[in-house]
Predict the 3D structure of the following.
Amino acid sequence: MMSAVLVFAACTKMDKLPFYKNGTAVTLSSDVTTITPNATDSSKPVLNLTWTSPNYATDSATQKFVVEMDSTGRNFANAMSFEVEGPLGLSFTGAQLNNMLANFGFTPGTAFSVDIRVTSSYANNNEQYQSNVVTVTMTPYLVPITLTPSSTNPITLSLTNGSGEAVSFSWNASNYGSNEIDYALQVDTAGGDFSNPQVFKYGTALNASLIENDLNLAIINLGILGGSTKDIQFRVVSYLGASYTNPLVYSDPVTINVTTYVPVPDNLYIVGDATPGGWANPVPVPSQQFTKVDAYSFSIIVNLNAAPASYLFLPVNGSWDHKYGGASATGGTLLKDGAVPGSNTPGPATAGLYKIVVNFQTNSYSVTPVPVPSSLYIVGDATAGGWSNPVPTPSQQFTQISPGIFAIVTTLNAPPSSYLFLPVNGSWDHKYGGATDGTEAGGGTLLADGDVPGSNTPTPATAGLYKIVVNFITNNYTVTPVPSNLYIVGDATAGGWANPVPAPDQQFTQISNSEFKITLPLIGGKSYLFLPVNGSWDHKYGGTSATGGTILYDNDVPGSNTPAPSSDGTYTIDVNFLTGTYSVQ
């Protein structure tokens, strides 16, 4: 009985296995053929893709769809893929689509043709089918930038707050795919077209702070004079990458009224292997000290060595704390401290005598060869030699007291006599002169060749001994009277302040037209003056140092007069009107 049952069980017929038919390739559709989104569409669906069912024999949740997009013609070799499990469609927002186009490297604002297809399969990737290809024209966009200043109130910049904040800015990000976007703040004058702006780079940061010194310098570099008030406009520019060569988006400009200042140092010196003093610091003075020609400018005439020699400008002799310079051998924008090239300011192409002018109001410098003569002479019926040419030397030859500056002490006749300056003795080919007698404050403008009046340079109203200084740096000349006698008076002397003084004990000996010398006892800690006329207080000379220095005249002499040495003793005082100096030894 048991075996029958076993036989029966072994012969039972099983049901047929289930049969699943193959799926089919889906048909892809797009709701648009052309897309031109903008920033306002960033969160909105702008592309809706749908496809038919693949008719797989399983639940739709186990079906997978891979949407591929690539530039037309690349056969999906560099496609971007998006995976969907279940639904028969996929939507893209403006931002999603824009990022994809950006990562393709597409140029913003330019239409591109994009191919789209869908590959369907089971969840385990079995039974894959590719759809038809749909082509959509797409145009990527850029996100606008809004620049927001901390304030639009007028700004008055000042040297005393130079390291303080002048104004700050912030702006929104303007992303473009996964690309690095860097930002720069541009500065221009109101009404300008930003064709040559001042630029501050901030990398990927979305904010900026400008200190007063930097903003002041930027505005002056735009060609605005320091100390003036102007409307200044600012804008932010986004760039593709850190090279700052591919601008993308420009914000609207923001305008702020700004008053600048002129950061003028008290002094200026030149140092470097392009100069005679080399890199030794402190530099030799006065030969490497600039002359301050006005409230904002310094000038010097100096021998410069040719490049690769270089130089710098120093506001404090003996200190490296601050420096000025430039990138050009002929002049340009004046740079400060860390902005000065590491190679310093290049020397000229050819060694020689050059005039350097540094202008802090325009923040510029210029380097020009100087046609300064190597010698200078005076000729004319105002002189002892008359109009004879060549003139008598050395009596009518100037002394070069520094590069570009010549001086002479000579007797001049009264008007209508006149005179000229000659660079070559015995030649009339070139001449210098002026239209005034040169005695007024500031002297007269130096004229050359045909610009010299036909009546030549007029003499002062009164005949006498005069010091004439011809300055090719400032391009002027001065004519000042020089005494024919000199006396010393003061409580530092034996005669005290009694005037007239005892002569000849307190009368100088005249060594030459320009030089006077005396040796006498001086009382330490007292003071004195020099008088051109014994017995008269009408005019006086003096100085500020007990050991010597620059000769001062009349009201420029300190009220405390010239200090005597600290100790009693016999001293020799040398007064030289040609060099404008005195010494006490």
Remarks:
- The longest strand covers residues 229-240.
- The domain at 147-259 is CATH 2.60.40.10 (Immunoglobulin-like).
- The chain has a mean pLDDT of 92.
- Helices lie at 2-10, 94-103, 212-221.
